[in-house]
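USER:
Class, as today's exercise, take the chain set out below, and explain how the chain folds.
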Amino acid sequence: RSTDCVPELKREEIEQLIVQLLLDHVL
């Protein structure tokens, strides 16, 4: 678990971005 590169970006934000990308691809 290395969160030193992007400490500002939380897992929730990253997950939301991934979900949005997936939805965009699916739709």
DSSP finds one helix and no strands in the chain.
